[in-house]
Structures are given as C-alpha cells and as structure tokens.
Design goal:
The protein has 462 residues and is of the alpha/beta class. It is 28% helix and 24% strand. It has 2 domains: 298 residues, Zn peptidases (Aminopeptidase); 136 residues, Aminopeptidase i, Domain 2 (Roll). The protein has a 9-stranded mixed beta sheet with strand order 1-2-3-14-4-15-21-17-19, sandwiched between helices. The chain has a 7-stranded antiparallel beta sheet with strand order 8-7-11-5-6-10-9, with helices on one face. Strand 12 and strand 13 form a beta hairpin. Helix 3 crosses helix 11 and helix 6 crosses helix 11. It starts with a helix and ends with a helix. 43% of the residues are buried. The protein binds manganese (II) ion (2 copies). The site of one manganese (II) ion has 3 residues, from loops.
C-alpha cells in the first residue's frame, strides 16, 4: 500500500455498506430477525394492538405488571401498561436506580385515518365514513388502496368492544376513491399538497340498501343494522369510539434479493420492535433497563399516553422509591436512546438530502445528534460527550452504524420524543432505522438496519 493510501486509511472517516462488510451469518441472522419483525407489523397495526402484543410476549418471558408497594429485586421483570396505549417494560438492575437507568424509547402510533365522532353518512345511495387524518400524511397517497378498520367502541356501561375488520383474507376491506384521469382536469391543477383534501378522505363502507319502499338513507340503515347484529352498537356509540383506518395489506419482502421490508407503520414500529425484543432479551443488567413504547408521537407526544406526560418520570420514580432511592438523582444519572426512524436518501429524490450527512439504506442503524428544523429549532441536540459514549458502545459491540440528518438545512425537518426525555434531565440521543417513503401507507426499510437497531438497543440496556 502506498504511503498516501495508508495515511488516508488512517485519517479519513469512511462509511461502508453494511451488507458488503457483514458475514453471511450476520446477514442470515438479520433475515431471520425480520421474519418475526414482519409478523409483528401484521399483528400490531395500532398502538393498542402493539401494547397487546408486547404484553403477550413479555409475560411469556416472565414480566409481570408492576405493583406499587411491592419489592422487586435485581433481575426481576415488570411492566407498566398506560391505558393500553403506552407500555414501559423494565428489568431491575443490580445497582440502585440512583446510579441511573438505561432507557430506550420508541413510538407505536403511526400516521393513519381516524374516524370522526359522527362518521357514517350516505350520498347517492353509497355509505361512507368521514375521517380526520392523524399525523403528517401526504393525503393523495391514501386513496385507492385497501383499508382495514381497527379500534374500539367504549360503551356507556363500561364495556369496551374491540374491532378489527379487513385483515383476514376473507374479510371485506374499505377504500377511499379518487377521480379518474379522464375527469381530473380541474383536480390536476391543484398542488400536490391539495391534490386530495382532508375532507375528501371519505371511506366507502357499503352500497346495499335496506329493502323497503319507504324512507331515505337505506344504505346507511343497512350498515347500522349489520353493525348492530355484530357488535350490538347504535350510531350514537361512534361518539365514544376510537376507530382507525389503516392499510389492509401485510408486510412483505421487497426486491429480488429480499434485502428490504415493505409495510405500513414502520415509523416507528421498526424501532419499537427492536426495543421490545431487546428488553425481552435483557437478563440481570447492572443498571435498570427500561424500554418504553409510547403513543401519540405523530401528533406531538401530547396527551396522557404521549411522552410529554409524566408517565416516564413517574415510573422511574416508582422504581426508585421501591428501592428507597431518590427519584430526582435517578433521572439526573439516566441515559436514553430515543429510537425513531430517519429519512434514508431516496435515489429518485436525492436533492432533498445532503449526502455527506444523510443516512443510507444498509449502512446500519442511524445516530442522529440533533433533529429539528430552521436552525436546529426544537431539538434537544445531544452533547458531544454523550455522542462519544454511544460511538464507543456501538463500535465496541461491532454494530454497523452511521450518522444521519433529516434532510438538507432549510429543506424541512422533524422532531422525535428525544426533547421530552431531555426535559427530565436525562442524556438522550436519537438512534433508529433509515426509511424510504416515511409516513406513506407503505414504507421501505433494509433488513440489516433493522437488525442493527436491535443490537444497539440490546447493547445499551444489557
Ligand atoms: Mn417516528
Ligand atoms: Mn413519524
């Protein structure tokens, strides 16, 4: 090797394609890991379903619901279920919580279409649902794809009825229709953002009229009759329901080489699944390990199931109190990986990214020092010291990783839960998986990156 080449090798920082530098064994492990990841995606399309699956998997591994006032010892596994929409799983450490706890946080809500409180109506003898979109979506992407309905009716007597229609092969699906190109001359003049408007995201749910010579709204009446037979509900019960329309298709491999995963809801279940499976694998950690799968990130982490609430602070407090430790000191010494997706460079739309600092598919898990927009506004910006800590952790474990910035300066931006964790005085940095078509009804990730995300979570909490 020439002197210059040696000097370059020594001094330059070079990112490498993770598939190039991984052994066949690692690639095979990543493939196998993603087989279960795809199953998780199919069974957890909403935050409520994700919590259910998490509870089920956790209980199999010996996790029990945390009981206030009960004493737990090192190695014990507990979970905190917040209203069935956010869950925190903890493995109690050998050291006191005052030495700090290691937290991974990911979100389990995804962009979707929520039904309005009064959703059902009839027009020209077709029945439809009015929706209000949840999270940042490009509305035109949600038309002419099969949709399924998930959620609950909460009844006045306290009963909660679960709904899931359109996931099984033989079940009906739903759809939002769009104009034919032949008659779209006027619509085509709209900007892409306005191409389909919020109030045009109306879901077709039926067309068969109740057989009668009299009365109007007979299609709507027939739909309500069917719902009444199946669930015992009336139209008024929609008022206290949480019903979500999501894409009805299943997760699948993408590409001849099957190196990618395509699915709905990978933001942020592509980080939630690694956080969940990592905490399930943690045994007898030095410091208490906590994985929190949170709701409401897509709408600003608001609400009592979002990470802006005191839920995380209180559970760390509960664990500290149980040990006779001080909750404030525990928070001050804690560390967190805020696990969320980053925008991978899209080969067709490269100009929105700054290539030296954007994340690439297959280059491993992405560490994002800061998010935000317009001059880092709204980011917690991790300290150099904490980045160094994470660098060392990942390199020592042989984890393939890269840095990532969400888009060019002034191209846009985004935020995660990191800032709300930072508000607690905890050291926090974003770490996650690069995604293509983020927030679309069908997002793409690379299998190796998903697996590296799991490995990072595990190393951090173990
Ligand atoms: Mn996200
Ligand atoms: Mn998002």
């Amino acid at each position: 090797m020439s002197d210059i080449k040696k000097l370059k090798e020594n001094l330059f920082y070079q990112r490498k394609n993770g598939r190039q530098i991984s052994t066949e064994e690692v690639l095979e492990t990543a493939n196998n890991y993603c087989e279960n990841y795809k199953k998780f995606l199919d069974s957890a399309k909403t935050e409520r379903e994700a919590v259910k699956v998490a509870v089920c998997l956790a209980e199999e591994k010996g996790f029990v619901p945390f009981e206030y006032g009960k004493k737990y010892n090192a190695g014990d596994k507990v979970y905190f279920n917040n209203r069935g929409k956010t869950i925190a799983l903890a493995v109690i450490g050998k050291k006191s919580a005052e030495k700090g706890v290691n937290i991974t946080a990911a979100h389990i809500d995804s962009p979707r279409l929520d039904l309005k409180p009064n959703p059902l109506y009839e027009e020209i003898e077709l029945a439809l649902f009015k929706t209000h979109y949840y999270g940042g979506i490009r509305k035109y992407q949600w038309t002419t794809i099969p949709l399924s309905l998930h959620g609950v009716f909460a009844l006045k007597d306290g009963k909660v009825l679960e709904v899931c229609i359109g996931e099984k092969e033989d079940e009906p699906k739903f759809v939002i229709n769009d104009l034919l190109p032949h008659l779209a001359t006027e619509q085509n003049k709209r900007t892409l953002a306005e191409g389909v408007k919020g109030e045009e995201l109306n879901v077709l749910v039926g067309s068969h009229p109740f057989k009668s010579d009299e009365g109007s709204e007979l299609v709507k009446l027939n739909i309500l009759k069917l719902l009444n037979e199946k669930y015992g509900i009336k139209e008024e019960d929609f008022l206290s329901a949480e019903l979500e329309m999501v894409p009805a298709y299943k997760a699948c491999d993408i590409g001849f080489d099957r190196s990618l995963v395509g699915a709905y809801g990978q933001d942020d279940r592509v980080c939630a699944y690694p956080a969940l499976t990592a905490i399930l694998d943690v045994e007898n950690p030095e410091k208490t390990a906590i994985a929190i799968l949170t709701d409401k990130e897509e709408i600003g982490s608001m609400g009592n199931t979002g990470l802006r609430s005191d839920f995380l602070r209180f559970i760390i407090g509960d664990i500290a109190k149980m040990q006779g430790a001080d909750a404030t000191i525990a928070l001050r010494n804690s560390k967190c990986l805020s696990a969320d997706v980053n925008a991978g460079v899209d080969p067709t739309f490269q100009d929105v990214s700054e290539k030296r600092n954007a994340s690439l598919l297959n280059y491993g898990v992405v560490v994002t020092k800061y998010t935000g927009s317009r001059g880092k506004s709204g980011t917690s910006d991790a300290s150099a010291e904490y980045v160094a800590y994470v660098r060392n952790l990942l390199d020592d474990a042989g984890i393939i990783w890269q840095t990532g910035e969400l888009g060019k300066v002034d191209a846009g931006g985004g935020g995660t839960v990191a800032q709300y964790v930072a508000d607690l005085g905890i050291d926090v940095i974003d770490l996650g998986v690069p995604v293509l078509s983020m927030h679309a009804p069908f997002e793409t990730t690379a299998k190796l990156d998903v697996y590296m995300c799991y490995r990072a979570m595990y190393e951090f909490m173990k």
